[in-house]
Design brief:
The complex is a heterodimer. Chain A is of the alpha+beta class. Chain A is built from 13 helices and 30 strands. In chain A, a hairpin with a 2-residue loop joins strand 23 and strand 24. The longest helix of chain A has 15 residues. The N terminus of chain A is likely disordered. Chain B is about 15% helix and about 35% strand. In chain B, a hairpin with a 6-residue loop joins strand 4 and strand 5.
Chain lengths: ~500, ~500
């Protein structure tokens, strides 16, 4: 990437291509082709190493955000987990997202045991599994953590159906900050080149260097043969955080910034010719770490601590060389750490201190992900009301950016500019369940609800409160677009709830 | 892509009548073959005059030595020639009136010999459903006059694809009509009952062709009587059917099946200041409005829009309304709603643009969007919600950085393509003229802030000046800006 205006973003990593790369699903789909293809990469079976991994079988079942009272059909995934010295098994967060049941299985004996997800971070895409009986892992040699750098040889571990290891050699070609499956998250990755063979149960697999864990495979592109790996430093941050009393997550600065290579921009900003550092701050999240510290839009960040920030927003990392400051902020540091920025503003260099903080998904007006949590809803006489979330938009499939209702996609993409105060959520009319109460409203869908009975609506809980105060026996529902307003007979709504639930199989009229 | 003969290409073969019926023989004295040389504006490279294409359509003689045809047959025309069935000579024609909103045009021929021996056709009424009609024209499949027959299948409102935004009364017929039929008369009992103008591709639907019915034709002919085409007017309000009993009671309406709720009133339209959101429309010019927004007109049910459709600029519409449960009468004086033209196909216009430092700024329009195949989310949002969210109030022109002509002074600016201009040097840019004025004002730096996050675009005056000739020579820029769509 050499373009000037690429924005390394925190928070809100955004790109035009927001399709989530689920390389591994693709990998599975192309399995027939792969299995029959011949590969030049050396493949070997090493019996002495088999003991460090276990099979992980997961049954996942997500909520259906278009029918928020329902869950989707369950499905199963198989993966390999890395056994750690602390008696836990490390897998990707994606593997256990919306899991109903997780079990561990010994590779050779096939012995199984239930496990619980002890800690999970969907942004860092990591999870720790705890077996129901700690003794289950006895005798398995755990994997120590070890970082890799560009040029290192590593190997990707898979299991044959016999339980024997299938090892594919891989070369670390790139270390950079890149997008994680939760679209807003960008953290360090290792990119490896390897020609993997298809094997069952490879949703998560470990990447090993010299017998130590270098990372977990996050995605594989069968075309380019690129393996993206959650690297040791990210895993290390996760484990350190998880070892504490409370898991905090990866901190953010709460800014967006743009590269500053353009000499006209540099001169306009007043940077002297001799100054070679600096990125341009384009957005500061209100009450975020940088915002509280006093950073402003238009500031130029010259250094963080004793590290110079170059014109692309990279710094010289002792381990990896030139890498984005996102790595320093989010992975090298922890929640509560204070970073001292050197900022150029109005011709002067000034210090700005920020205390790093993790921003939870719930803090967003439109949540970037909703996993393991049931979506709230309220069925008002047949009007299905929900809070807008990206998970809802993703119900339109991989091409949701183009297919989901345009206004909602726009609100989601530009939420930090459109709703900087973050006072609540956006409640939408998802659809209308036709009934005697909703005659004439059947075609309404995908509208933003602004008020009910005169009360501003900023959450599903607000809906429940507003519904208690009908006006002259009517519920007045207002939208921020046509048809702007509609009325329901409050008594008819109340009396019709049982029939509505029976007719459409709703377990409850609302979930707050 | 241009389909001057027909808006949508049809793929099935013609059914041609081997012998002309009596009606057909007479029509030979009225039918005109129109050959157009058109030049469509280039919205990607707006200083270029555009590519030149030829097409053939039909037309027919009406009273007053005039030729009636479709607007799309003669849009963007640089040269027109017309021929009669029984005269070997080609005559030069010009467009006298053109109505892009209802796809009709009047041509005149300066040579008086042309009309000698022609028989003007008379315009009839709306034909009955299932009654037979004959279609005349010059569709693909041969050079000479073609006749096809069919019946009237449906009478309804349809979008006129020529403008892409206007919907008027339309009659569907099942006679085969194909590219080249456009502008040709559809006849019944010796009278014109429509002008063939659009249809579906054979991939989509079979035997579905559309004609412009006579109320639309007559309205057009009446509109131009003053020597100028005024166009269709609109109430510029959205309404919502009042079919829900609870809603009717909440609004204080009896259960009599009448009335629609005004859900929004466009601030740039005729009804601004007269109607309000929440008003209930009860009657229009004395016709009761039913709860599904239909009225009864001459004994048949029809959308209430038809009442307004037949009116002209400056005409009045009398509305009986219920406001805050009180009955009252209001009058709307009809005027154009300018923001709608942004989403309409534009013809016979020169694209507006400003080129500065190799950055090409263009107002958002349907033509711009189609030429550039933009799928940027923000640009799409500004286009789609321009009317409903009244984005035009702050952005009468949505100024898009449509292209960048690469040069040393803008090499770092490539990712800003398709950005929408918000401010220049701290001043909000409402129109392209504002932008041109901002760039004309001397300053050391021109700081262009686009809408949304992102760093400002900074151009240094002296760098722009030094690059101007270099960029214009390299990219063959014929003109640095065009602020008026007539090219002046």
């Amino acid at each position: 990437m050499t373009t000037e205006a690429r924005q390394r973003i925190q928070p809100g990593w955004r790109r035009d291509n927001r399709e989530v790369t689920r390389g591994f699903l693709l990998f599975v789909m192309l399995s027939g082709l792969l299995a029959s293809a011949l590969h030049a990469a050396p493949v070997q079976v090493a019996k002495d190493k088999k003991a460090s991994v276990v099979r992980v079988n997961v049954t996942n079942q997500g909520y259906d955000f278009l029918h928020p009272w329902s869950k989707k059909a369950p499905y199963s995934r198989q993966a390999l987990g890395a056994v750690l010295p602390n008696g836990r098994v490390l897998v990707t967060g994606e593997l256990v997202a919306n899991s109903d049941y997780v079990e561990l299985e010994k590779a050779e004996s096939g012995e199984k045991i239930a496990a619980e997800v002890e800690v999970v971070d969907y942004e860092a895409n990591l999870a720790l599994l705890k077996p129901a009986d700690d003794k289950f892992l006895d005798g398995i040699k755990p994997l120590q953590l070890a970082p890799a750098v560009v040029g290192d040889q590593a190997s990707v571990w898979q299991l044959e159906s016999t339980g024997a290891l299938l090892i594919t050699n891989a070369l670390v070609t790139t270390v950079e900050v890149s997008r994680y499956p939760i679209d807003d998250t960008a953290l360090l990755i290792y990119r490896l080149t390897a020609s993997l063979q298809y094997r069952e149960g490879s949703f998560t697999v470990p990447v090993v260097k010299d017998g130590k864990l270098a990372g977990l495979m996050m995605r594989y592109d069968t075309r380019t043969q690129n393996v993206d790996v959650i690297p040791a430093p990210v895993i290390e941050h996760f484990l350190k955080d998880a070892a504490g009393n409370k898991y905090h997550g990866f901190p953010r600065a709460g800014i967006l910034f743009a590269a500053m290579r353009d000499p006209q921009l540099r001169r306009y900003a007043g940077l002297p010719e001799s100054e070679s550092r600096g990125v341009y701050v384009t957005e500061v999240v209100k009450d975020g770490p940088a915002g509280k510290g006093g950073l402003q839009v238009g500031d130029v960040i010259l250094a963080i601590g004793d590290k110079a920030v170059d014109q692309d927003g990279d710094y010289e990392d002792p381990q990896y060389g030139k890498v984005s400051i996102v790595h320093m902020i989010s992975t090298r540091n922890y929640q509560g750490d204070v970073l001292k920025l050197s900022v150029f503003r109005a011709g002067k260099q000034i210090p700005v201190a920020m205390t790093l903080d993790h921003r939870p998904a719930e803090d967003y007006v439109i949540e970037p992900y909703t996993i393991d949590r049931a979506p709230g809803y309220y069925v008002l006489g047949g009007l299905v009301l929900e809070e807008l979330s990206r998970q809802y938009l993703k119900e339109w499939g991989p091409d949701w950016v183009k297919k989901a209702p345009e206004r909602f996609v726009y609100y989601d993409r530009y939420q930090s500019q459109l709703f900087p105060d973050r006072d609540g959520k956006i409640v939408i009319l998802n659809q209308v369940l036709p009934s005697a109460t909703t005659v004439g409203y059947e075609m309404l869908a995908y509208l933003v609800v602004s008020k009910i009975n005169g009360i501003p609506i900023r959450s599903i809980a607000d809906v429940a409160k507003a519904v208690e105060k009908p006006i002259n026996g009517f519920h007045k529902v207002e939208f921020s677009e046509d048809p702007r307003v509609l009325y329901l007979d409050a008594k008819q709504v109340e009396d019709g709830n049982d029939a509505l639930m029976r007719n459409y199989g709703l377990p409850a009229i609302n979930r707050l | 892509m241009r389909h001057p003969l027909w808006r949508i290409l049809l793929l099935f073969l013609l059914v041609q009548s081997p012998v002309l019926a009596a009606e057909g023989l007479a029509i030979q004295k009225s039918l005109i073959r129109v050959t157009t040389t058109a030049q469509d504006a280039n919205y990607r490279v707006p200083w270029e005059p555009g590519s030149i294409e030829e097409g053939v359509g039909a037309g027919f003689v009406i009273s007053g030595s005039r030729i009636l045809t479709n607007a799309h047959v003669v849009s963007n025309a640089r040269f027109l020639s017309v021929e009669r069935e029984d005269d070997p000579k080609k005559y030069i024609a010009t467009v006298e009136f053109i109505a892009h909103d209802c796809d009709l045009a009047i041509l005149k021929v300066s040579d008086p010999d042309f009309f000698k021996g022609t028989v003007p056709l008379t315009i009839g009424d709306i034909p009955a459903l299932e009654s037979g009609v004959s279609v005349y024209g010059y569709p693909i499949g041969g050079e000479r006059l073609s006749v096809t027959k069919g019946v009237v299948s449906r009478i309804d409102f349809q979008t006129y694809t020529h403008s892409g935004v206007d919907a008027h009364l339309t009659i569907q017929i099942d006679a085969a009509i194909n590219p080249g039929n456009s502008g040709g008369p559809v006849m019944q009992d010796g009278n014109v009952v429509g002008v063939a103008f659009q249809g579906y591709s054979g991939d989509v639907a079979q035997n579905v062709g559309y004609m412009i019915p006579t109320p639309v034709i007559k309205r057009f002919l009446k509109d131009i009587e003053g020597g100028h085409y005024g166009g269709y007017m609109d109430l510029s309000v959205n309404w919502f059917n009042l079919q829900n009993p609870a809603e009717r009671r909440a609004l204080g309406l009896p259960d009599d099946g009448t009335g629609v709720l005004v859900s929004s009133v466009a601030s740039a339209g005729s009804s601004a200041g007269v109607l309000k959101q929440g008003d209930v429309l009860l009657a229009i010019d004395g016709h009761t409005i039913f709860e599904d927004a239909f009225v009864e007109l001459n004994g048949s049910r029809i959308q209430m829009s038809e009442i307004v459709e037949r009116k002209f600029k400056g005409d009045e519409v009398k509305l009986a309304i219920l406001r805050d449960k009180q009955k009252m009468d209001v009058t709307v004086k009809l005027a154009e709603a300018w923001p709608f033209s942004m989403q309409a196909n534009a013809y016979d216009k020169k694209p507006r643009y400003v080129l500065f430092g190799g950055l090409l700024f263009q107002p958002l329009s349907r033509n711009f969007l189609e030429a550039n195949q933009v799928d940027d989310l923000r640009v799409r949002f500004f286009y789609d919600f321009f009317i409903s969210d009244e984005l035009y109030r702050e952005h009468p022109d949505v100024i898009v950085l449509g292209a960048i002509l690469p040069d040393a002074i803008n090499t770092y600016l490539m990712p800003f393509r398709n950005g929408i201009v918000d401010e220049v040097n701290g001043v909000k840019m409402r129109t392209l003229n504002d932008l041109a004025a901002a760039f004309a004002k001397p300053a050391d730096y021109y700081v262009i802030q686009l809408i949304g996050e992102g760093r400002p675009i900074v151009l240094e005056r002296k760098a722009v000046d030094a690059a101007r000739e270099r960029i214009e020579t390299r990219y063959n820029v014929l003109k640095e800006q065009n602020l008026n769509d007539d090219g002046s």
